[in-house]
Every structure is written in C-alpha cells, then in structure tokens.
Amino acid sequence: MFLSVYYLLALVLILTVHEAAHAWVATRLGDPTAQRAGRLSLNPLRHLDLLGTLMIFLAGIGWGKPVPVNPRNFKKPTRDEALTAVAGPLANLFLAVLAAIPLSYAPIYGYWGMLHLFSGAVLELSLVLMIFNLLPFPPLDGSKFLAAFIPFKYQASYQQFLRQSLPYFIAFVVVDLYIFGRMFGFSIIWTVVSTLTFWLKTAILLVV
C-alpha cells in the first residue's frame, strides 16, 4: 500500500506542506531563519531529506528535512516555538479534510477513480503523520508543543530532557516497530497511531 504511486505522491505532498507550515508560522512569529534557508516554499526539493526519502522506498515511511528555528527571535520563545511545532500537524489535518471532500462527493468511475485513490492516500497519510508527530517524544512536534504547558520552573529541566532523550526514543522506535512488531506482531506506536487514525478518519468523513 505505502509503496504505490499514489501513496508516494501523497507522502511527498504531505511532507512538503508539513515542513512549509513550520517555516511559515516561524516567519510570521518573527524568526526569519527558515525563510533565509529557503524553506518558506512549496518546492518539495527544499523539504525532502535524503535519508528520509530513501526510507520511503526501503521501509515504506519517511520524513522531511527539519525546518531550522531560532527561538531567540521569538517574542515569547516557549509559546511561539510550540505554535511553530504544532503548525505542521495542523497543516496535515487541513489536508486530510480537503482530501475527504472528493472522497465524499466525486464519482468513482473513469479518471475520477484516480482522484479517489490519491485523495484516500492523502487523507490516510496526513492523519498518520499528524498523530505520529503529536506524540510527546523528541524530536517530534508533540514534545515541543507540550513545552508550552510545562511550568516555568521546570522549563530548564524539560529542555534538557528534550536534548538528551533523542537516542532513547530512536531505540524505542526500533525495538517497538522492528523487533516487537515483526517478532510478536504488536507495536505500541502503530497501535496508537492506527487506532486514532481510524477514528479520526471516520469522524472527518462523517462530517464532510
């Protein structure tokens, strides 16, 4: 499924919009770092990461190039960095809602069938990427968004946690997805993401 042409095209679109949304919000909040790096763009080549792109073909899932952000340029660094972080997942939710429209109203015959396949891929992958990125683990967007709710006296400790815990999260992902998932057929991450994706997808299609 993930290696079909429709899913590959959808993933390129989703990653591009996700990263461009980070850059746009950061720029609007006063940090020109992403704009100067050429990331305020919908050109996929500016957002695709070499390793992340290769992983699309090797593992069926990939990632974009992280958008550079300098919190010192924000008026309220903790709040504005959180808003910049959540902009990517919210952009994915917006794409998912847009993709649900042709799925609900367009016919499924002829060339419209291709639109249905592409829209279905955009809807599903947008929600998967959104939910995965909202998990509160570094370097995911959810960990930076969560920082806005951490009391000031704990901010230094939390930021240190974010800087130091990345290797542990990577190890957890490898063990959960590639060891437990393949050996025992159960993955904590995929169970959470797929369950929430199913219910959110169902809700969007019912509303739209």
Shape: globular
From the alpha carbons, calculate the radius of gyration and give it in angstroms.
18 Å
Approximately how much beta-strand content do the residues carry? under 5%
- The counted number of beta strands is 0
Number of helices: 9
Uncertain segments are none
What is the N-to-C succession of helices and strands? Answer: HHHHHHHHH
Relevant terms:
208 residues
Tell me what the structure shows.
The protein contains 9 helices and no strands. 69% of the residues lie in helices and 0% in strands. It has helices at 5-28, 33-36, 50-59, 77-105, 112-133, 141-146, 155-164, 166-183, 188-207. It is mostly helical. It has one domain (5-207). The two termini are 25 Å apart. Helix 1 packs across helix 5 and helix 4 (77-105) packs antiparallel against helix 5 (112-133).
Topology, please?
Layout: H1 5-28, H2 33-36, H3 50-59, H4 77-105, H5 112-133, H6 141-146, H7 155-164, H8 166-183, H9 188-207
Helix pairs in contact: 1-4, 1-5, 4-5, 5-9
Brief synopsis:
About 70% of the residues lie in helices and about 0% in strands. It has nine helices and no strands. It is an all-alpha fold.
